[in-house]
C-alpha cells in the first residue's frame, strides 16, 4: 500500500491505525503474532514481519539472519513502526534486506496484559520493574525466537529502555552472550542523570517512593490509549511536546510535523508504576542496579518484614561479551558516553555519535534513513559477512 501513498497520506493512516497489524499493512507487510509464557507466568506477545504485501505466496527464504527489536519505557512494539515512509522504518528496511524481523513486548503493555493466574487489575500483576524484564522477559522472548527459527544466534536491537533491559539481561544471563551476535543500542540508557525539570528531579530523587503515593501500585498510564484517541491532535501534540521538554529536555526540532501526526497518537502505553520508581532509584543512586525495596509493606511485599530495606545490587555489565554498537545523539540528556563506558568492556563497544540528535530522534528524526539506518545495516553486516 505504501508505495502509492505520499508521506502525508501514510502519516494520516498511521495515526488512525489501531494495532501492530494495521501499521505493518500500511507499510506494506504482513505479520505473525506469537505468545510466550515467562517462568513467572506472564504472557508476552511477539510480532514478526513475514512478507511484503503481494508476495505472500513466494517461497520463504530459509535460515534468514534473525533480528530482534525491544521497545522502550511506556511503549510497545508499535514504536518502531510509527513513521511516515518505509525507508524510515528500520524493521521494514531490515525485512527488505532479507532479515527475519521480530519485535518483543514487555509485560504490562497493551500486547502483554495476561498472566496464568494474576488478574490484570490486581497490584500483584503490576509488581514488576527492570529486574523482571531482564530476568524473565528478555531471555524468554529470545529463547522462543531462536527455537522457533532454528537459529543459533540472533542480533538484538534495543531502543532506550530496550537497551537497558539488554544491558541487565546480558550481564546476569551468561548463556545469552553465546546466543546474541551483536547488540545494537539505539539511544541507549543505563545511568541517566535525572529528570530535566529541576523541581521534579529534586523531589523524586529525595524519595522515589513518592511516585507510589501519587500513582498507586498498579499501572502507569492505564487510560493513555483512550486519551490519545479522543484528544484533539493540537492539544495532544502540545501535551507531548511539553512533557518531552520537562522529562527529557527534548525539544523535538528534528521531528517533522508529519512525523508527529503519525507517532504522537500512539507514543505512550501502559507499564508498571514500579518501573518508574526503579528508574528514579537508579538516577538517585547513580548506579545501574536492581530494585531497592524501601520501607514497603504493601500486599506485594507481604513476605517481607515491614519497613525492611532490601539493598540493590549493581548489574555486572562489564562482564558482557557481546559486541555492542551504541548509536546515540549528542543532544540526548539521558546518555553520557563517558559514564556508560565506565561500566562496559571497552573492547566490545563501538560508538556512533549523531550530531544534534535528541533521544527520540534516533527513531523519528527526519533524516534517520541517512543518519541512523545505514549505521545499523553496517553493524549487522559485520556479523553476517
Automatic annotation (TrEMBL):
The keyword Glycosyltransferase does not apply. GO terms for molecular function: hydrolase activity, acting on ester bonds. SUPFAM superfamilies: alpha/beta-Hydrolases. The active site is at residues 160, 332, 359. It comes from the Eukaryota. It is found in: Membrane. Signal peptide: none annotated. Residues 22-81 form the Partial AB-hydrolase lipase domain. InterPro entries: AB_hydrolase_fold (IPR029058), AB_hydrolase_lipase (IPR006693), Lipase_euk (IPR025483). The keyword Electron transport does not apply. Pfam families: Abhydro_lipase. GO terms for biological process: lipid catabolic process. Keywords: Hydrolase, Lipid degradation, Lipid metabolism, Membrane, Transmembrane, Transmembrane helix. It is a single-pass membrane protein. GO terms for cellular component: membrane. Belongs to the AB hydrolase superfamily. Lipase family. This is Lipase. It comes from Agrocybe pediades. The lineage of its organism: Eukaryota, Fungi, Dikarya, Basidiomycota, Agaricomycotina.
Amino acid at each position: 500500500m505504501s508505495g502509492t501513498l505520499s508521506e502525508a497520506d501514510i502519516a494520516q493512516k498511521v495515526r488512525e491505525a489501531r494495532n501492530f497489524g494495521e501499521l505493518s499493512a500500511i507499510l506494506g507487510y504482513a505479520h505473525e503474532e506469537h505468545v510466550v509464557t515467562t517462568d513467572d507466568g506472564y504472557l508476552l506477545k511477539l510480532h514478526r514481519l513475514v512478507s511484503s504485501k503481494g508476495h505472500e505466496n513466494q517461497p520463504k527464504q530459509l535460515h534468514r539472519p534473525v533480528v530482534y527489536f525491544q521497545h522502550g519505557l511506556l511503549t510497545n512494539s508499535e514504536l518502531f513502526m510509527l513513521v511516515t515512509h518505509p525507508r524510515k522504518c528500520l524493521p521494514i528496511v531490515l525485512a527488505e534486506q532479507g532479515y527475519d524481523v521480530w519485535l518483543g513486548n514487555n509485560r504490562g503493555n497493551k500486547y502483554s496484559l495476561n498472566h496464568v493466574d494474576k488478574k490484570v487489575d490486581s497490584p500483584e500483576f503490576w509488581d514488576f520493574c527492570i529486574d523482571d524484564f531482564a530476568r524473565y522477559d528478555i531471555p524468554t522472548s529470545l529463547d522462543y525466537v531462536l527455537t522457533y527459527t532454528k537459529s543459533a544466534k540472533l542480533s538484538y536491537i534495543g531502543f532506550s529502555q530496550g537497551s537497558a533491559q539488554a544491558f541487565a539481561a546480558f550481564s546476569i544471563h551468561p548463556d545469552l552472550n553465546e546466543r546474541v551476535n551483536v547488540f545494537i543500542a539505539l539511544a541507549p540508557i543505563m545511568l541517566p542523570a535525572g529528570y530535566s525539570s529541576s523541581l521534579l528531579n529534586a523531589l523524586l530523587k529525595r524519595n522515589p517512593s513518592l511516585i507510589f503515593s501519587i500513582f498507586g501500585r498498579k499501572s502507569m498510564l492505564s487510560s493513555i490509549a483512550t486519551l490519545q484517541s479522543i484528544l484533539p491532535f493540537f492539544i495532544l501534540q502540545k501535551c507531548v511536546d511539553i512533557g518531552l521538554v520537562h522529562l527529557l529536555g527534548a525539544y523535538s526540532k528534528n521531528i517533522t510535523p508529519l512525523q508527529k501526526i503519525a507517532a504522537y497518537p500512539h507514543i505512550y502505553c501502559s507499564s508498571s508504576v514500579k518501573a518508574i520508581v526503579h528508574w528514579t532509584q537508579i538516577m538517585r543512586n547513580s548506579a545501574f542496579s536492581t530494585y531497592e525495596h524501601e520501607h514497603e509493606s504493601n500486599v506485594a511485599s507481604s513476605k517481607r518484614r515491614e519497613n525492611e530495606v532490601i539493598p540493590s545490587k549493581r548489574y555486572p555489565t562489564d562482564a558482557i561479551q557481546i559486541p555492542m554498537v551504541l548509536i546515540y545523539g549528542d543532544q540526548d540528556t539521558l546518555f553520557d558516553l563517558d559514564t556508560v563506558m565506565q561500566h562496559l568492556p571497552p573492547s566490545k563497544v563501538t560508538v556512533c555519535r549523531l550530531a544534534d540528535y535528541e533521544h527520540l530522534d534516533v527513531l523519528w528524526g527526519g533524516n534517520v534513513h541517512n543518519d541512523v539506518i545505514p549505521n545499523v545495516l553496517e553493524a549487522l553486516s559485520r556479523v553476517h559477512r
